[in-house]
Amino acid sequence: MMMTRGTSRVARLTMGGRLFSAVKGAAAESEKFPVMGVRWRSSLTLGEKEEVNGSSAAAGGGDNKREDGNKEVVASYWGIKGEEVKKEDGTPWKWNCFRPWETYQADLTIDLKKHHVPTTFLDKLAYWTVKSLRFPTDVFFQRRYGCRAMMLETVAAVPGMVGGMLLHCKSLRRFEHSGGWIKTLLDEAENERMHLMTFMEVSQPRWYERALVFTVQGVFFNAYFLAYLASPKLAHRVVGYLEEEAIHSYTEFLKELDKGTIENVPAPAIAIDYWRLPADSTLRDVVMVVRADEAHHRDVN
């Protein structure tokens, strides 16, 4: 009994030390990547994580070093050392938010003009709900399409996760398979999240736009959750029409890039690796593949 209590005390002290180091590391990171910056820990490369962890270790958080003095690469929220992953050419894989086998090439030949004509009452309700949401978005963001895309993706990544979660629970309750829909919806949510990780690299959201993300996501998550419980068909129709609006927004984004209103900067490294784009790709290439992704989600929903 005494040994058990002693072991528990040691475990608590160890956990406390790790928590303290994590808090100090977050503080050091916030100094390097300020609130108004565009980089967040979820989109950092492993090399940048090492640098951040190294700075926190130098400040007193020594959990990132082994007894032999060499740094350990900790690439998860749980402090577990990640496996070493390499690219096909043998170079180290630098992303912790996705792995090489999760990358793909977008289908740019997909029909962008396809439209599901609303016929039933639920179709019309979903269609006009989405149309009514477009007006305040146009007024607020106007032609700041980078920040508009950031806001769009923080919302677009919610439905797949909510739908996948509810289907998962339904499958458990009924002791039956989901027909593959759980994975499809979760993959959709992950893809939308990677859109956000990409546009975080090119946009400079203002403080009130960041605050708006909290508000809109909180309201939309709960509203969509209740809508999915009431009618999954209505919920998916809403997503389908949202994706049609997303295609329109990214088309306007491309027009601004072509006119030179928005600078066609080099594509972020995370986008090049995720979509397997050529090394010399630009922001326009990124918007093209993102728009193709949205078209695919439109057809699924």
TrEMBL record:
Known cofactor(s): Fe cation
Recorded superkingdom: Eukaryota
Cofactor note (record): Binds 2 iron ions per subunit.
UniProt KW keywords: Electron transport, Iron, Membrane, Metal-binding, Mitochondrion, Mitochondrion inner membrane, Oxidoreductase, Respiratory chain, Transit peptide, Transmembrane, Transmembrane helix, Transport
Gene Ontology BP, a term: alternative respiration
Pfam families: AOX
EC numbers, comma separated: 1.10.3.11
InterPro entries reported in the protein's UniProt record: AOX (IPR002680), AOX_sf (IPR038659)
Family named by the database record: Belongs to the alternative oxidase family.
Name of the protein this chain belongs to: Ubiquinol oxidase
Record organism: Daucus carota
